[in-house]
Every structure is written in C-alpha cells, then in structure tokens.
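Structure ticket #2291
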Amino acid sequence: MAAKDKFGKAGEAARAAQRNRYLLRLIEDDELRANLLSAYAAARGAYGRMSNGKPTTQALFRDRKLQRELSEAVSALRQATSSLREPAKPARRRRGGIGRSLLLLAVGSVLALALSETLRTKVLDVLFGAEEEFDYSSTTAPEQPAPAGVASE
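Resolution: structure written out below.
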C-alpha cells in the first residue's frame, strides 16, 4: 500500500500518458516530430528577429526574413496538425521486392559458378574470349648428345 501511495500520482500520470493518442503519435511519428521541430526553430528565429530593439510593427511589415520565418513556422504547424488529424500510417513491411530478388539471383549465380566447372569455363570464354590450344614447336634443332668420352667445353 505504501508503494501505491508513493508512486500513485506518478503512476496515474504515466497511465494517462499511455492512453493519450496525441502523445503516442508524437513518440511514434518521425514526420510529426520533424514538423514540430521545424516550427519551433522558425518561431524561435522569428522571435529573435522581432526582439532586436526595432518596433514590432515595423519588423512585421518590412523584415522579409521575419516574414519568411513566420510563414515557415505556420506551414510546419499546419503539417503537424494535419498529420495529427489523420490516422497513423501503418509501418510498411515489404515481402520480397526487387532487392531480395536481386540478392537471390546473385547468390544463385555465385553458387552455380562455384559448383560447375563447365559453366565457369563458358563464362570465362564469354568474358575473355575462348582459350586457344597452344602447341609449342621449337625453331631450333635439338642438341645432339655428345659422344661418349668427349668432354664438353
């Protein structure tokens, strides 16, 4: 009972956070987090430009960078709110696909080349040309053995 009292409010807060669909989306959705970070960065930059000592109305109407940063912040917030309204996109699981097919083709080809000598020779012949049979024929006459008893110099 003491543990429940000790962690009661924290436990309730954790359970409430687990039930909050917006908080779960924020944790799971990378695009939503990126939009929120982009909006924050643009708003922070705009605030910095507005608090530089010039009158706010003058900055709003004349400062093009400030207008662009405010526009970026609004755009990013719009994207974030629209992604919160849409249902979460399920994670895509691809079965097969071209990548797996190419991998299987490459592994099969390597195994076939490793196991079949005739296939290897055919592939080498296609790549480097057919191997020519080479018969060596000497253009010089073979040396006659020296007669017995005669020393060679």
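Closing remark: Helices lie at 2-19, 21-28, 30-50, 56-62, 64-85, 97-115, 117-128.
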